Batch of 4 targets.
Target 1
Amino acid sequence: MIVTVRLFGPLAEQAGKPRLEVSVTEATVGAVLAAVAVAAPALRLDRSVRAAVNTDYAGAEAPLREGDIVSLIPPVGGG
């Protein structure tokens, strides 16, 4: 399955683009994270980066369906 991954903030800067497409054989967020780490090794994907499927936050075990979009969201600071 081909999954579109949207990158925000410093993640988009690190990758040099705001969007990636990765191929996964297992349809989970965790598989997408592993594929992104291979496709864009410059990304710093630590525990503070949150994933969302379409519009809902999701954990690594969350299943994906064809057409889902995974967003990777870095921590946001401010006040």
Target 2
Amino acid sequence: MSRRTQITLSDRQHAYLVGESVRTGLSLAELVRRAIDGTYRPYFRPRAGGFELSLGVWTRPDAAVVGRRRSRRLL
């Protein structure tokens, strides 16, 4: 059985949900249901195991990447 509930969101919250809906392809209602389950019942919904991998190739590295590299002179 389902229940219909009305909530009031700020413009900022609504815009965020719309953006997430477009990005994920999920309805606003499903996003709200998942947020409620994740906050109040974090172990209720099963989660799929896995990992995410991102890879990028640039001709020149970003300044933040260069700053994190160790200098060969220090080794």
Target 3
Amino acid sequence: MLPTTPAIGIDFGTTNSSLALAVNNQVRFVDFPSAAGPSHSSRSLLYLQQRANAPGRPVAVYTGAPAIERYLATDSFDTDTRGRLIQSLKSHLSARNLTGTEIFGRQYRLEDLVARILIDLRHYASQQFGFDVTRAVAGRPVHFVGADTDADNAFALARLEKSFHQAGFTEVTFVEEPVAAAYAYRPTHNREETLLIGDFGGGTTDFSLLRVNPSTGEHRVLGNTGVGLAGDALDARIVRRLISPALGSESMVTSLRGVLPAVPAWVYSSLERWHTLSFIRTRATIDMLRGLEKRSLEPEKIAALLDVIEHDLGYRLHQSVQRAKIELSSSDHAEFVLDTGIVHLRAPLTRADFEAWIAPELHRMETSLDTLLASTAVTTQHVDQVFLTGGSSLVPAVLRIFTTRFGADRVQSGAAFTSVAHGLALIAQNA
């Protein structure tokens, strides 16, 4: 029998993806190239661009940092080189009514787009690890975004598995992401512990309770819960309360029926999610907004909204939102700044305002955590350690949920973007 190649750990996330290989418990991450230097994580996105002056107008596809760099370098005014940026595909996996999308006259299934990202991830891993990567232990959320039932979760997982196989993986095993994060946790004592894992992704927040035995390496799951919101939902609040008003969400237009909102609310809903803005950049939407601009009482704000949509500035806008959010993690004040040469927006932001805006999301996280403790009959006193991972775990209001309940001495954080991949790699070495 021919020896099998090693399995690797893959954390395919809504926002970022990481891959790792463990040998003798020593973990090595894939380094992804970018203009800013190598990184252990890659953005989970695609940029599709029509090739100018080519027979049949074939489409060039870029993923990760090269996709972002290509997108930012593209002249938005040149319709011959303009492309389509597609993000947060993982958040659509449970949507049965979303089978795919049309791009430059060609229909793409959702599984095709996810597989295209996974193909490049597999390529980087094979290149750096020195063998053809075909086996993986992959992370999955406890509850996929938009999944209301077990059947919805099963449907999303089946689509994700199909994408892995389409990308060239012959064998893939799925492990819940917070369980994988537990393997990256380093116990403070050499005794059995009850461990609470909080995994904050771009689209989901998952909690798991485990009994961890450092001497045997056993990880026994006591229970888990999840909620379909995390970093993207927090960003959306900043957009709704700070950015959308500057782009006309509170502007009015005169009509025969009196003074009415200038722009339909669904436009601003699309603005709140960085992965949906590109989908409304259609001729019908642009024509509608140009007509509303002429009748609006604040035409300059509608003109700025038009520029954001027409020039596909969603990525830049949400990067500016994230910079302000990160600044608030270490300061009580921040400033949102979007200056693209086309659109110029600047607005102050306070931590107090931000925490008030995200209060509904914080409440849902707390409710999910309380549900887990109640369903497992584990009290806060019986939780020995709390291990948090994911970008939103760095938000002070999120961290306070745990320090208030368990005490700061029992709460520790792992690498925000690589703890899950680290744990998956440790599991994969025994696969």
Target 4
Amino acid sequence: MMNLKEILSDIARAIVDHPDDVTVVSEEKENEITLTLGVHADDMGMVIGRHGRIAKAIRSVMKAAAGSCGKKVNVEIKD
């Protein structure tokens, strides 16, 4: 079974300038998992992207990964 928290962390670390500051907090309720991504303040723009395109792509990848596990995932980006 995939570790969704680790997958999100790896994706975020690959696109930011401060990979050591990436944090992922997981909260699970029945079939739904909420992952909260935290990054360095300078990296916030890289994670969100223009008009939210990168954030949307991250959410799509995570939904695909969660679908193979039979779970629903929500990705939130902490300010």
